[in-house]
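$ run holo --ligand "NAI" --emit tokens
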Amino acid sequence: MIVGLPKEIKNNENRVALTPGGVAELVKHGHTVYVQATAGEGSGFTDAEYTSAGGTILPTIEEVYNIAEMIVKVKEPIESEYKLVKPNQLLFTYFHFASHKPLTEAMVASKAICLAYETVEKKDRSLPLLVPMSEVAGRMAIQKGANYLEKPLGGRGILLGGVAGVNPAKVLVLGGGIVGTEAAKMAAGLGADVTIMDISLPRLRYLSDILPANVKTVMSTTYNIREAAKNADLIIGAVLIPGAKAPALITREMLKDLKPGAVLVDVAVDQGGCIETCKPTTHENPTFVIDGVIHYCVANMPGAVPYTSTLALTNATLPYVVKLANKGWGDACREDEELRKGLNVINGQIVYKSVADAFNMSYSPVENHL
Ligand SMILES: NC(=O)C1=CN([C@@H]2O[C@H](COP(=O)(O)OP(=O)(O)OC[C@H]3O[C@@H](n4cnc5c(N)ncnc54)[C@H](O)[C@@H]3O)[C@@H](O)[C@H]2O)C=CC1
Ligand SMILES: CC(=O)C(=O)O
Ligand SMILES: [Mg+2]
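-- output --
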């Protein structure tokens, strides 16, 4: 198969979807890989390394999209890329469709095959291609939150861990999945007073077992969220309903009861956010303030730490990339239920129910296309 590796063009997105090692693996299986010039630069990989791994460098993004049967990316195509996507071309990347109608409409119109990293799902319901980036973003959320709590950046001026004789900051984590667990661990490690909420009692039991004593587990209900939010210095949004738009757990109306200078980090922003006032921001301009509360809503947080994120992401994606290249998307998805769950758009039809539901668009079960 002819595989294309474009350079990411989202704001401050420094990751790349294949390392030179990944290219070598595809070449070993008989595939041809075209790499856009400087695609790996942000992650520390030179064009020469891709060439010696067996890849061919192309100067422009247009040439890469034009020649490739499968495009392997990190982030969803942005507007300038929509016109480059071809009918029957396979795109394997994060899409987060349910939070972005224009992207959904553009990919439907393109008649391409969109296989989304974030909905590839194992039998145990875990999301193997989301996990590594959620680990990164969960850990980063506390670094960012601690930073924006500093007075010169507009925050309350409280140190997460406090010091001897002074109370630590209160951190509220909404959602106890991968992002939430990593955030709670980091905040606890810094000595904060942490509360983590989830709607799953078995998950809360597990978290209560593994997390240290300065993390309390609490059932996620509107009442409990409202009470905990009033006292929180830092709130992390980390809920997910796979493929669907996130529920608004912190509403516009709750903001007036929050502490002035409190910080909200809505990691779930890529699925629309679980804080009603959240809208996507960029690494260049990451925050905005409403009612005296700082909002940090960067939709590609791991893009800022590409030396960690590119390796973590490609460790997880490469086996699936090789399988798709070896078998083609049809056979690969027929045989492999995990990959089949990743199919969101096929040839002009939405085949993932919660994406269709998010926009009241028509839905066509994936089985009709395999
Ligand atoms: N902004 C960024 O750069 C990044 C964003 N993300 C996003 O972070 C979000 C979370 O991802 P993961 O932790 O991997 O998901 P996950 O599936 O591991 O965890 C989500 C948790 O939310 C819980 N949940 C669902 N509804 C809830 C409610 N009403 N109240 C409390 N908990 C609720 C679920 O029970 C589950 O435990 C996703 O939207 C993901 O795309 C992930 C990585 C990077
Ligand atoms: C998961 C995701 O959206 C990211 O890593 O940017
Ligand atoms: Mg994202």
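-- notes --
The pocket of magnesium ion (ligand 3) is lined by residues 270, 299-300 (CB under 6 Å).
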